[in-house]
Amino acid sequence: MERPTNRQSTTNTKTKPQGNQKGSKKKKKFNFRKLILGSIIATILAIICAMAIYIVVIMSGFKILETNIDKIETSTESTLIYAQEEGKDKPATEIAKIYKGENRESVDIKDIPERLKYAFIATEDRRFEQHAGVDFWAIGRALVKDVIHMSAVEGGSTITQQLAKNVFLSSEKTAFRKATEMSIAFALDEKYTKDEILERYLNRIYFGSNAYGIKAAAKIYFGKSNLNDLKVWEMATLAALPKAPSRYSPLTNPDLSKERRGVVLRLMTDQGYITEAERAEAAAVDYVPPTAAATGTKDYASYVDYVMNEAEDMYGISEDELLTKGYRIYTTMDTKAQKIMETTYANPSFFQKDASDGQKIQSAMVIVDNKTGGLMALIGGRDYKSRGFSRVYSKRQPGSSFKPIAAYGPALESGNYNPYSILDDSKTSFGNGTYTPRNYDRVTHGQVTMLEAVKKSYNLAPVWLLEQMGVGSGLEFAKKLGIQLNAQKDRNLAIALGGLTDGVSPLEMATAYTAFANQGVQNKTHAILRITDAQGKEVAAYKQEKKQVIQPKTAYYMTMLLQGVVETGGTGTKAKFNRPVAGKTGTTGLDIKGIEQYDRDVWFVGYTPEWTAAVWEGFDKVDAKHYVTIGSGSPSSIFKEVMSKSLEGRPVTNFVKPDNVPVPTETPSGITDLAAVYEVDKKSVKITWTSLGDKMTYNVYRKGSKEAEAKLLTQSPVPSVNDTSVFSGETYQYYVMPVNADTNVEGAKSNVASVEIPKDNTLPNGTSPSPSPGVSPSPSPGDGKDPGTPSQSPGTKPTPTPTPGNTGKPGTNPSPSSSPSPSVKPSPTPTPTPKPGEEAADKPKDGKPDDGQVIAPKQP
Questions:
Q1: CA distances from 59 to 38, 45, 68, 424 (A)
Q2: Which of 189, 398, 534, 804 could form a disulfide with 402 if both were Cys (CB 3.0 to 4.6 A apart)?
């Protein structure tokens, strides 16, 4: 065989040359000198490009500055707000026009106190004195924080940039606009001193409530024309506004304003402008608006202000832009309802008389469409002024109106209870004796149905119920309905009666109750349908957000309960009108000595199949001269007046029972005249009671003195039993629970009858045995039964002793704990920590039952 030649080998094997193989090409060595030279050249080119860009930016900024040096931004076009009237064929109705009125007053920098200037520098631009218009250090810091948090959490704009944006630029949010802003900032810093820049900034920026410039803002919010009269807390309040004028306005959101003021004061302290003592003093002050703070009464002012807030919060359109950009905003308002609401609130006969100092009691009302979440009408207070304090957001103690949310709702949602379930309204001490609520009539009512407990607003029953369910179930149910309670401070049984740490607002309560009215479905509450620009181009639109937050069965059963409240005997009868209505009253008692019988807050929250409304009434600041004396009847009357007239002319509809939801069966009423007598001649105990009807049987229970709990003695078809299985010298307690023979639903426990058996040598001695055949039903006249007839009919099984937790369903209702109840042992529940001065305080008002539930913590 011939050996292949080198040529053949090379031709046939096309592999890469081996490392030391002859004929392979040598690798080129890496040239570090060329790399270094290339890097230097690239760096030089980058510097040249950067300098060129910088020069272009600077020149552009100077050009814009020179062209617009005296420019003051003015109103371009009014924004129009429309109500979207019912019916597609009807045109939208213009309800308001908002525009920028030039409420601007300039002030010289020498008339601006040093601390006021430093309040803005500390808050908006701490390196204002060091940078050249743009703070690259702040921009870098902001970028790092944004990357860490994976979102834009901090901005890097300087005071100079904010002035450039405010005076020279449009509101478009683009990279080009940001670069232009920076170029103008460089030019401004080059042309003007720091004091001149700060003076222009403080005279130009928008402070909310139609106030442009620091002097106008001081007048609007504090009624002060001389800036040197401002106190430290007032200066900090003003410095807090530029970040979000409507959100942090002390007029509209005093709580948020105070919170933001605290941030400003902390920054001033950290940067050495005020002492810690000054900070603490300024942070504690509560804002009181000046007499002439509001800008005036206008039609639909509360609703228009809500729309402006929603435009900013939901769609990012600032108040300043709304005043200048000529938007067209289409809303859900029902003009008829809004007009009726405002007319009602202008009528003093619906409200308590003014306080001795002339101060009016305040109120707020919200109406929400159950099917859409659209706001039909709202009012933020009596004599509400534009951009004033809207009480639709104000958090107050809800009292009994919160019981459906914290106690009854979770129970129904669990599936273990229905409107006819038996609850215990006799237990008066909870949480190992740390919480002792009481009813308004100062008495207990024993075993009651849930319907009765809700209708008459008992206090003990819902607290007992929440203890059975566990406090966590109440917190979770409230969260489902959109109310976020304080997870630590509200983890106690007081929430069953509306004793909350932070309270709830009328807006939150109306939104929560829509789920009861709408088969458990809740929509996002909103006022804006869509927003267009002046040319009709849509810039924002509401996207429906609806969610099944609770079961349809829960909503239906809750509606059954709340309909009872407005019927005769309920606490909310003044809310009833000629449509299906459901709702709940609520009052919160005072903790002021000598006037404990009156209230801090009163409520009615209710609904028809179409709309849900919440009405709150009370004083903004409660003290010994300002409190509620008229009970929950007033908000109930306001509800009826506004809702009945607003819905007039619409077809009457009914609440709908969801498919596959059973109608709960009413439990038998309780027995109250049980009697037990030892008959010496028969050596037996005769137990008798009044019959509840032909379709009723009776479970008879007995407890001996040495027994831990009662046991089923017999089931009798007649209202009389002879107990022949008794022991000498023993004491027995008897009670009866009626049972519906058709549905097997057990009713409430009767009164307890006690019998002492005398010493008798003919009777056995010892502990009572288990129930035995020696018990017989006593015959009713003419029923043909013998005394010796067995205690049970053939085929009838005795009903087992009920226990809580697996009760409430038709056929298995609970037998709650009530001394001497047989088998109920309360499940462990977190011990509630009562809030300062807080206890249940239901009481009569003007001689009739009313709600007055929990004495709430004092309002700040």
A1: 31, 21, 14, 82
A2: 398
Give buried/exposed letters for 141-179 (b at 16+ CB in 10 A, else e).
Answer: ebeeeeeeeeeeeeebbbbbbbbbbbbbbeeeeeeeeee
Q: Which domains does the chain have, with CATH numbers?
A: 101-284 (1.10.3810.10), 675-777 (2.60.40.10)
Residue numbers of the chain with a pLDDT score lower than 50: 1-17, 19-24, 72-75, 146, 149-155, 171, 174, 294-297, 768-770, 772-773, 780-850, 852-860
**CA 572/CA 564 separation, integer angstroms:** 9
Distances in Å between the Cα of 70 and the Cα atoms of 65, 67, 103, 191, 791 are 9, 8, 19, 14, 104
Does pTM top 0.85 for this prediction?
A: no
Whole-angstrom CA distances from 38 to 28, 34, 44, 702 are 18, 6, 10, 103
Amino acid identity for residue 84 in this structure: Q
- Give the start-end residues of each E strand in 4-144: 79-83, 93-98
What confidence tens digit (pLDDT) does each residue in 202-226 have? 988 889 887 888 988 998 899 888 9
| Token couple for 713 | 């003695």
Report the C-alpha gap between 76 and 555 in whole angstroms: 50
Give the model's pLDDT for residue 90. Answer: 66
- Catalytic pick from 400, 505, 632, 646? 400
Cis peptide before 410 (omega within 30 of 0): no
Residue 210 Ramachandran class (φ > 0 left, ψ -120 to 50 alpha, else beta): left
Q: 605 - beta bridge partners?
A: 584, 614
Non-local (6+) Cβ contacts of 705 within 8 A are: 730, 731, 732
C-beta of residue 421 within 8 angstroms of C-beta of residue 814: yes
Q: Is 124 a catalytic residue?
A: yes
The dihedral sign for the CA sequence 314, 319, 320, 326:
positive
- The letter for the amino acid at 840 is A
Contact (CB, 8 A) for 95 and 304 = yes
Question: Is 707 designated active site?
Answer: no
**pLDDT score recorded for residue 58:** 60
Token pair of 551 as six digits: 């079961």
Q: Alpha helix locations (H) across 192-300?
A: 194-204, 214-222, 232-239, 254-270, 276-284
Is residue 842 within 8 A of residue 443, CB to CB? The reply is no
Cα–Cα nearest to 536, from 80, 179, 147, 164 = 80
Per residue, what are the HEC states of 142-203?
HHHHHHHHCCCCCCCCCHHHHHHHHHHCCCCCCHHHHHHHHHHHHHHHHHCCHHHHHHHHHH
CA angle 531, 537, 538 (to 5 degrees): 35
Q: What pLDDT was estimated at residue 585?
A: 97
Contact (CB, 8 A) for 471 and 450: no
Question: What does the block give as tokens for 722?
Answer: 């002879």
Catalytic residue among 124, 452, 730, 746: 124
DSSP state of 652: P
**pLDDT (tens digit per residue) in 611-630:** 999 999 999 999 999 999 98
Q: Which residue has the tokens 């049987």?
A: 697
* φ/ψ of residue 641, rounded to 5: -60, -50
Q: How many CB atoms lie within 10 A of CB 93?
A: 12
Nearest partner of 210 among 163, 255, 252, judged by Cα: 252
Q: Which of 664, 799, 808 is nearest to 737 (CA)?
A: 799
Please report which helix (H) or strand (E) contains residue 528, including its range: strand 528-532
Place of tokens 């103008």: 184
DSSP designation for 140: H
